Request: fold
Amino acid sequence: MSTVELSFKLNGREVSLSVAPDTLLVDLLREGLGLTGTKAGCREGECGACTVLLDGTPMNSCLLPAVKAQGREVTTIEGLEKTDGSLEPLQEAFMGEGAAQCGFCTPAMILTATALLKNNPDPDEGEIRHALSGVICRCTGYRKIVQAVQTAAKARS
Amino acid sequence: MALAFEKLHWHSKLEVAEYLVPASLTEALDMLASHGGKARVIAGGTDVIPELRSRKLDVSVLVDVSRLPDMDGIEADGDDIVIGGGVTHAAAAASPLIQDKASALATGCGWVGSPQIRNVATLAGNLVSGQPAADASVPLLALDAEVTIASAKGERVVPLSEFFLGLGQTALDPGREILTSIRFQALADNQGSAYLRLAKRKALNLPILVCAVKATADGGNIASAAIALGPVAPVPFRERAAEEFVAGKPATMETLTQAGETATATCNPRDSLLRGSCDYRTEMVKVFVRRGLTAALAQAGCTVK
Reply:
């Protein structure tokens, strides 16, 4: 099978690699690059667990051919950790509020909330629920997740 | 770092041999033409990727049109609004022009899939997929939109009323043609539109019923109305009997209720455990036609008596 040369910025670092033309971004991240924080759930865009940020915008990496990342910036949950090992206020808030149970949706929730707070630093509950509506959580009932985003928004302001 | 990931097609299982990224529309159309129908256009990919995975599509080459220049505009052109073939649902839903002059479309685009889906999925793709529950297609049908379709042989313009041919079937050949733009009249001061949606959840849920209405008011009368429905037949469609019934009539609740009663002639929804019975959905068509007309007329400055 032929391969495609691909270069993009991943969590702040330039990467260049060759991929099969039909590789999906979620598989490149998880299997090719070992970044397993991004989850493959339904693989149909229904659950949102595979959400990554492409140029800062949340997208389902299970529906994105890896080639679409060419020349763009991909941020996964691993990219939020700072070089000194400290975490983002959102991550701290998710831990502090107990906003994760099984944890499968948590990376997607945090990345989606990251994009929300960048565009809207002080969202109300409705705006938070709307922004997170593309990620399904089967454990928490969403209440703690919404609280964590509110707590993080206050911590940042 | 340079690594090879040939093994990865194992996991993706799309079984596509080539992924082409043309730099111009001409190049894209030539790529399609040279593969004789075995290539397929991919834009956002939110329909194409699941169809490839489930083997509903038999193609060996993908032609990615999402980076073509001059395809992402939402612009006023005289009395018309022109939407480029690359415009996403998120961009359309957030556009002040569409919110103000085609509110039914902004509302419909805001319901598609999820925020993640809306960030990549295009209105053009929503049309080309030819699904009766398509949240952008139904309002565009009510707005009397027409689409420009390009191929290596040239360009043609097709009104949406002639575009949807059957479930998943449209007048566009996705192996040879590209939908380059969508055009419709902006709402005038005496016009209004509305989009109503019935679904079990507020996100990630296909609708049980959708109804888009464009109404033109003439004082206290309904000058004309366009009523589009989905998914209560294999294609989204215009409910012509109800449209003819209300034209020229006073904007009263009696007129609108009778319009709802006449609106079920073309409906033939399936009985569905997930999306309700045929009887229920047919009853709701009457309610949605009445409510849709009421809301569109209110936006046109005409209060229903």
Summary: Chain A has two domains: 4-79, 89-156.
